[in-house]
Amino acid sequence: MTATAPSATLQLLVHLALVCCRPKAVPKHLSSLTTLTRLDLAGNSLQGGWQRLLPLTRLRDLSLRGCLLQAVPQQLPALTALTRLDLNANKQLDGGWQHLLPLTQLRELNFVLCGLTAVPEQVSALTALTRLALSHNSLTVVPQHLSVLRNLAYLSLCFNNVSSGFQHLLPLTGLTRLTLSREPVPAELAALPRLRISYVHSPPPSATPLQACIAALILLGLLAMYLAYGWLA
């Protein structure tokens, strides 16, 4: 977004990425961009201004990845058209779960690296979910309240300490992909013949400078694809 861009053109924007732009609050001009359907605010330490999202009722995809959130913003219930919410890498996220309840159209929810010790019970109200990412937390059990998410097809639990509660996944007959960090396959999951389990183990030792450069180039390519097409499978 530039100062010379005609305001009429800006008001027709549907996708906007303000990644790592370092605003201290949600920018005030966002409230006028009411045609937005995808908004990426990743990598910004946002300390307020959430009321500026209230007019964005057409938003379907919202990324608040790495925004140093401590609670789910109380303004999110107004965004009832959301189908994807990315809260990845908010390592101190510890409340505001009730603000997820009105988001009944959510299909993808990302809680990776959120410092969770338990899955919020309010997630059970989001019965349209097809993808739920819970990896890189401190979970120890699959909670019973996940058993109501009958549309769930993808569940990520790797890099946790989950060792029990797998029986609560048995009602999820549409579940086709599960990622874990522990082997062997929990015996309970044999009852889900369509399920494919992937094991993701600890990362390799520190990369050499050349490997790091190659990895950075790959990440840039993935970022370009993400900005163009959304959440990568």
From TrEMBL:
Transmembrane domains' residue ranges: 214-232
Keyword Membrane part of the UniProt annotation: yes
Signal peptide start and end residues: 1-27
GO cellular component: axoneme
Domain of life from the UniProt record: Eukaryota
Subcellular location per the Swiss-Prot or TrEMBL entry: Cytoplasm, Cytoskeleton, Cilium axoneme
UniProt entry keywords in alphabetical sequence: Leucine-rich repeat, Membrane, Repeat, Signal, Transmembrane, Transmembrane helix
PANTHER family: LEUCINE RICH REPEAT-CONTAINING DOMAIN PROTEIN (PTHR48051:SF46), PTHR48051
Protein name according to UniProt: Uncharacterized protein
